[in-house]
Design brief:
The complex is a heterodimer of chains A (584) and B (234).
Chain A: E1 2-11, H1 15-27, E2 30-34, E3 50-51, H2 62-72, H3 79-99, E4 113-121, E5 126-132, H4 138-152, E6 156-159, E7 161-169, E8 172-180, E9 186-196, H5 217-224, E10 229-230, E11 235-242, H6 252-255, E12 259-261, H7 269-272, H8 282-294, E13 306-309, H9 315-321, H10 323-333, E14 342-351, E15 355-356, E16 362-364, E17 370-376, E18 381-382, H11 394-416, H12 428-439, H13 446-460, H14 467-484, H15 498-522, H16 540-543, E19 545-555, E20 561-571
Parallel strand pairs in A: 1-2, 1-9, 2-6, 9-17, 15-18
Antiparallel strand pairs in A: 3-5, 4-5, 7-8, 8-9, 10-19, 11-14, 12-13, 13-14, 16-17, 19-20
Helix pairs in contact in A: 1-4, 1-11, 2-3, 3-11, 5-15, 12-15, 13-14, 13-15, 14-15
Chain B: E1 2-9, E2 19-26, H1 33-44, E3 63-66, E4 69-72, E5 87-90, E6 97-99, E7 102-103, H2 106-114, H3 134-139, H4 141-144, H5 157-161, H6 168-178, H7 186-193, H8 207-211, H9 218-231
The chains are: A alpha/beta (584), B alpha+beta (234).
């Protein structure tokens, strides 16, 4: 076992983690721990762009962007946070350009901008060109550019280090315990500030655009510490995943003029969103697609998907603006987008919920109190700038704005805080977890349980939900948790034991799926990404509030412990905008 | 269909030597090699070890030698590999193997980091963005696509025989900034690449271009850097 001491420890090296690291390491001694290599992070898979009201190609301003974000989030967005994000968006984009990010350019050599779903001029009048982009690989460019800046700034990385526990002393975050993949050795990191930037948990679903590694480790760790998770029922299903695979095809395809069609070749979005049509927010488009399929207007042998049509676009335009996603269609489905329509269906994409934070990136222990020394940014966090449904491009914006803010806040706190003495045997929990798993002799296999979890989540907790389907999911998850107690791994070694780590990751997925479903059961309304067929209207009287889930352990008289999920609620911050019906 | 997959296994905790193991897997023609590896790991042998993340060719984790050629496992479909015959999978060559298909990436990243792969500018920053024409932006577009998967570097015969050579990827990483009109670090970067282990070791075998899963014209980029060195201008 090795011990380390840093002023700031950042967990995760995607966009949010590296953006935080650039701020923090400038100010104080900082370590970045990642279970991958920084450039493998899933920020690199983001495609379409990052919105900011630069007004480079047409009139725009950050207040319109704020309104769109609030309305896109079905009014569950904390409006003070959305204002911060949209106001700072302009500098966030310009900062990236100065770091060297190769944005596409206008004829005058400025950063080019294009249409994106839900982004409008003057509060919904018409679509607006707000997304700053680098072809359809904007996330790749952001990840590379931030990594390049980290090299320039000599940021210290610990690659392939799995953080598995957060250390807390008297309500304050004081360190983390990490497992080194290469050797199986444990490392204790003592720190004044800890920033979680470890991404989402899309792998609870089968059909997902998420990487295999997106198993919600950060949320899972803080959850086990008794810290709350906010708005976990809100999960975004991206309309255009490659049918059957879930591989993401950017909304930029529709931003550049692509059209969704059903089996009658009808442009069906005209019926669902007459003004913005195919560029309606993702939750609405995903539901419309699922509805077309349910009503028998799906395409293909099983009528199981709809088509994304780019055939009316010039091949040269496709090559210049959408090179990667058209290559995905060719590689994985053998479809030629110049001449053929592409089969698409919604794919689990983004967690709106997560570790609750304020606008400085400080993590919250409840509705009001900050946890000293703990920060979160990016998909792992819930500020909440996305509310019930995130607008396209706002995630790349979120990681830059709130990654930066969390990095600054963490370094500022470390400047005056002292190192806390760690508890005796700080590694005990992780030793139990790892060695328990390594030595277990049960008959259950990790992959079988994970497959069953993903199947029930896809069937019961996806675009359409009901009380019945959610109860089914919950009882399935409970059964899977019992099976998980009997799981064993085949690889008993120390070296690169990915078999073991997959088992640990599955533990996080099971916990988070349960929180998602329990939160969704209690929200008896439909809002943004959470659609209940049995309560198909938004209910502002009873549910204009954030869900706060807590893990609580009760001890019976016989000493037996049971884990319960307790739900509480938090008011939504409203400043400029009163809730209104969401039409596009 | 039933496919035979032959994998070069190595785990020094168990055995000092590497050995081939063959697995039988039921796959669909449209499945990826990564799907085959997962099926083996998840259903037959949990000790099989490889890196992977995004599973659609953008993160660069799973470069490996498949049927003797460097490719990404997640971007290679079974039907494109003549699956009637055994499919062979080995770690990429030239970097120390740590376990099964996992190699030590540090020498590779060290080479990348050594070429100053970041924008170098001087003077005050402008208030707004730096202006760059569409033509100037297009000039270095190809090399911005690199995902650092190491398929090119570990397909290079010079790299195999001389571990000190920077390798194609590092030159691609430098090219991306040398030909960026906003950058002012070209002189320093060219000096680094003028090293005896730099661009001049390239023997123009085009293996790197063939290996690149992103379709970057790697050899062309290297030639452009060589030309820039000779004429000292870009």
């Amino acid at each position: 076992m090795q011990r380390h001491q840093y002023d700031v420890v950042i967990v995760g090296a995607g966009g949010a983690g590296m953006r935080a690291a650039l701020e923090s390491s400038k100010r104080t001694r900082t370590a970045v721990l990642t279970k991958l290599y920084p450039t493998r992070s899933h920020t690199g898979a983001a495609q379409g762009g990052m919105c900011a009201a630069l007004a480079n190609v047409e009139e725009d301003n950050w207040e319109w962007h704020t309104f769109d974000t609030v309305k896109g989030g079905d009014f569950l967005v904390d409006q003070d946070a959305a204002e911060v994000m949209c106001r700072e968006a302009v500098d966030a984009v310009l900062d990236l350009e100065k770091m060297g990010l190769p944005f596409n350019r206008t004829a005058e050599g400025k950063i080019d901008q294009r249409f994106f779903g839900g982004h409008t001029r003057n509060h919904g009048e018409a679509v607006v060109r707000r997304s700053c982009f680098a072809a359809d690989r904007t996330g790749h460019m952001i990840l590379q550019t931030l990594y390049q800046q980290c090299i320039k700034q000599n940021v210290e990385f610990f690659n392939e280090f799995y953080v598995l526990d957060l250390l807390m002393v008297g309500g304050r975050a004081t360190g983390v315990v990490a497992y080194e993949l290469a050797t199986g050795e444990l490392h204790i990191f003592s720190a004044k500030s800890i920033v979680f930037a470890s991404g989402g948990f899309g792998k609870v679903f089968r059909t997902t655009s998420n990487a295999h590694t997106l198993t919600g480790d950060g949320m899972g760790i803080t959850w086990r510490k008794g810290l709350p998770l906010e708005d976990m029922e809100f999960f975004q299903f991206h309309p255009t995943g490659l049918a059957g695979l879930g591989v993401l095809l950017s909304e930029a395809a529709r931003g550049e003029g692509g059209i969704l069609r059903n089996s009658d070749n009808e442009r069906f979005m005209e019926r669902y969103a007459p003004t913005v049509k195919d560029l309606a927010p993702r939750d609405m488009v995903a539901r419309a697609m699922a509805n077309e399929v349910r009503e028998g207007r799906g395409c293909g042998p099983d009528k199981a998907y709809v088509m994304l049509d780019l055939t009316h676009l010039e091949p040269a335009h496709i090559d210049a603006k959408l090179p990667d996603i058209t290559e995905f269609a060719r590689t994985y489905l053998g479809v030629e987008p110049y001449t053929e329509q592409i089969p698409v269906f919604p794919t689990a994409h983004y967690a709106m919920g997560g570790i609750p934070t304020n606008i400085k990136g400080e993590a919250l222990a409840n509705n009001d109190d900050v946890i000293p020394g703990l920060y979160a940014a990016g998909e792992v966090a819930c500020v909440s700038v996305h509310g019930a449904n995130r607008l396209g491009t706002n995630s790349l914006l979120d990681i830059n704005v709130f990654g930066r803010r969390a990095g600054i806040a963490a370094a500022d706190y470390a400047a005056t805080a002292v190192f806390e003495e760690l508890p005796a045997e700080p590694e005990a929990f992780v030793v139990d977890l790892i060695e328990g798993m390594r030595n277990a002799e049960g008959t259950e296999r990790v992959a079988a349980i994970r497959t069953d979890l993903q199947a029930t989540m896809d069937i019961n907790a996806q675009v359409y939900r009901t009380e019945g389907s959610l109860k089914q999911a919950l009882s399935d998850i409970e059964g899977l948790k019992r099976r998980f107690a009997q799981v064993s791994v085949q690889d008993k070694g120390k070296r690169f034991n990915t078999d073991l780590l997959e088992a640990v990751e599955l533990g996080f997925l099971l916990d988070l799926a349960e929180v998602l479903v329990v939160s969704a059961l209690a929200r008896k309304e439909s809002r943004g990404g959470h659609f209940r067929e049995d309560y198909d209207k938004r209910d502002d009287v009873n549910f204009m509030r954030h869900t706060m889930a807590y893990r609580e352990i009760s001890v019976a008289e016989d000493g037996k412990e049971t884990v319960n999920i307790r739900l509480d609620y938090k008011p939504v911050v409203q400043t400029r905008y009163k809730p209104m019906e969401r039409k596009y | 269909m039933d496919v035979k997959v032959k994998i070069l296994r190595y785990n020094p905790e168990v055995l000092d030597e590497s050995e081939w193991k063959t697995y039988s897997v039921t796959l669909l023609p449209g499945d990826r090699v990564l799907d085959a590896l997962h099926k083996i790991k998840w259903e037959q042998d949990g000790t099989l070890t490889f890196r992977r993340s995004c599973a659609h060719g953008v993160c660069g984790s799973d470069a490996m030698r498949i049927n003797g050629r460097n490719r990404l496992a997640c971007k290679t479909l079974i039907k494109d590999l003549n699956p009637e015959k055994e499919i062979t999978v080995e770690p990429i060559k030239g970097l120390p193997v740590l376990k099964d298909l996992v190699v030590d990436m540090e020498p590779f990243f060290d080479a990348y980091r050594s070429v100053m792969p970041f924008l170098v500018t001087s003077g005050h920053e402008p208030t707004r963005e730096r202006i760059q024409s569409q033509e100037d932006r297009e000039r270095f577009d190809d090399t911005t696509k690199c995902i650092l998967c190491a398929a090119c570097t570990t397909s290079c015969p010079v790299f195999w025989s001389d571990g000190q050579y920077f390798g194609p990827q590092a030159i691609v990483g430098a090219h991306r900034f040398i030909f960026d009109s906003r950058d002012e670090g070209t002189e320093q970067r060219l000096e680094i690449l003028n090293d005896k282990e730099g661009v001049w070791r390239c023997r123009t075998t085009f293996n790197c271009t063939d290996a690149c899963p992103r379709g970057i014209e790697v050899t062309k980029a290297i030639q452009e850097v060589k030309r820039a060195l000779i004429f000292r201008r870009v």
